[in-house]
Amino acid sequence: MPGDPGDPGDPGVLGASGDPGPRAVARVILLDPDDRILLLHGFEPADPAQEWWFTPGGGLEGTESRAEAALRELAEETGITQVELGPVLWHRYCSFPFDGRRWEQDEWYFLARTSQTATAPAALTDLERRSVTGARWWTSEELLAARETVYPTRLAELLRKLLDEGPPGAPVVLDPEIV
After folding, report:
1. Strand ranges, E, within 56-146
2. d(CA 56, CA 46)
3. pLDDT mean by block of 10 residues, the chain; 179 residues
4. What gap in Å lies between CA 3 and CA 23, rounded to an integer?
5. Which member of 34, 48, 85, 92 has the lowest number of beta carbons within 10 Å of its beta carbon?
6. How many Å apart are CA 90 and CA 27, to the nearest integer?
7. pLDDT tens track for 117-127
8. Which among 109, 27, 12 is positioned nearest to 62, based on CA atoms?
9. Predicted TM-score (pTM) of this structure
10. What's the rounded Cα separation, in Å, for the pair 29 and 113?
11. For 134, left (φ over 0), alpha (ψ -120 to 50), or beta?
């Protein structure tokens, strides 16, 4: 799963057939003072052996902006609210099977910084409660050496470049990921 699709009851979440377009999603590249990145651990509810790590975030609700959605999702999924939200780093389209359906998403990745490293999910959806098992702070070196599946798949390389060069002048469009 390239990311957390959210609540399947959300009318903005549609499969490939009859789809007016991909679901608008805001994701967070959350870094602590030591430049570690926070990732969530998830799995396919029907097959817990299919597991992966992914960035916090999810779909927009109502008329909220992507930045508002990023902060709301981060608070709901991690309990972290002391955040300095930065620029949009990356943009990608992804499509993946999860929980018995195909999800299509248009994802924007925001840079964010925090000194609050303790996590405690505050408002997970039913689907998130059935498919997310925790969170972990990763160093760039740990992420580069990881054998686990991580989404987006180039996250280790992208994080290293971000730490070495700083945020891009404009959002970088990542290759689409179709799983």
Report:
1. 57-59, 84-98, 101-113, 132-138
2. 22
3. 46 45 96 98 86 94 96 95 97 90 94 94 75 91 95 96 97 95
4. 12
5. 34
6. 10
7. 989 888 877 77
8. 12
9. 0.88
10. 8
11. left
